[in-house]
Design brief:
This protein is of the alpha/beta class. Helix content is about 35%, strand content about 15%. The longest helix has 15 residues, at about 50-65. The N and C termini lie close together (about 5 Å).
Length: about 230
C-alpha cells in the first residue's frame, strides 16, 4: 500500500527535511530535476514558474543540456526566483543558456511543465493561464512536474486553465488530486519518483511509507502500485 501526500503535508515534509533532517532543499531539487529529465527522450522545451516547482524544471533543463536534449528554457519571472530555484537559474546561465521570458517551443518535441506545483489555491490568472493554454495548444508531448499545472493537488479539480500531460512525474509520493476528479484525465501516465526524502519525515506527519517502495527501483509507475 502506498499513501498519498496532501499539499499541506508536502509543505511540512519539505520543512522537516531541511530543518530536522539537515538535508538541503537544493539536493532534493537536483534529484527532482534529474528524475524529470530522465523521462524526456527528445528535444525538450522547459517552461518554469517562480517557485520550487520551477526550480525543479530548471534543474531538469541543466541535465537535458548535458545530454544534448535541451531545446529552450523559459521562466515566468526570472528576477522573482529565490533560494534554490535562483541557484538553479544561475547554474544554467553560467553554462551560457538563455532563460527566456516567453516560451519558445520551436523545434521541441516535448515540453516540461514546471509552472505550478502543489500550492495552487485559485484559478491560474494572467500570464500563467496564457502559458498553460500555449502548452496545450502546441500539440507536444508534455511531462509535468509533481502535478499538471492548474490541477488542485488535493481535490483533482481544475478551477481554470490546466495542462494536459502525457506523463506526470510526482515527487516522493503521489498527490491525492492525481487519483480523483479531473486529475485522472489530465495527469497522463503517472510515475512516482524517489528524490531522497527520508521516510522519517513522512512518519513525522503521520504517513507510513512501505520500506520497500524504492528498494528495487528509484521510480515506479503509479498504476502498478496498490493505493
Amino acid at each position: 500500500m502506498i499513501p498519498a501526500l496532501t499539499a499541506a503535508k508536502a509543505h511540512e515534509v519539505d520543512r522537516l527535511v531541511s530543518e530536522r533532517y539537515a538535508i538541503p532543499v537544493d539536493w532534493l531539487m537536483e534529484a527532482a530535476g534529474w528524475q524529470v529529465a530522465r523521462h524526456c527522450r527528445g528535444r525538450t522545451a522547459v517552461v518554469s514558474g517562480r517557485g520550487n516547482n520551477g526550480g525543479d524544471g530548471l534543474a531538469a533543463a541543466r541535465h537535458l543540456h548535458r545530454w544534448g536534449r535541451l531545446a529552450s528554457v523559459a521562466c515566468l519571472d526570472r528576477e522573482a526566483l529565490r533560494g534554490p530555484a535562483a541557484a538553479q537559474a544561475r547554474a544554467l546561465e553560467a553554462l551560457g543558456i538563455e532563460i527566456r521570458s516567453e516560451p519558445d517551443l520551436g523545434d521541441a518535441q516535448l515540453v516540461v511543465d514546471a509552472l505550478l506545483g502543489t500550492g495552487l489555491n485559485r484559478a491560474p490568472e494572467g500570464r500563467i493561464s496564457e502559458w498553460i493554454e500555449a502548452i496545450n495548444a502546441a500539440g507536444r508531448r508534455v511531462i509535468s512536474v509533481d502535478v499538471p499545472s492548474g490541477l488542485d493537488a488535493d481535490t483533482g479539480q481544475t478551477p481554470g486553465a490546466c495542462v494536459t500531460a502525457a506523463v506526470t512525474v510526482t515527487l516522493g509520493l503521489p498527490k491525492p488530486g492525481l487519483l480523483s476528479g479531473r486529475g485522472v484525465e489530465v495527469a497522463g501516465e503517472v510515475w512516482v519518483a524517489d528524490i531522497g526524502i527520508p521516510f522519517e519525515a513522512y512518519r513525522a506527519v503521520g504517513i507510513d511509507v512501505p520500506a520497500h517502495l524504492f528498494s528495487m527501483h528509484d521510480r515506479v509507475q503509479l498504476s502498478a502500485l496498490r493505493l
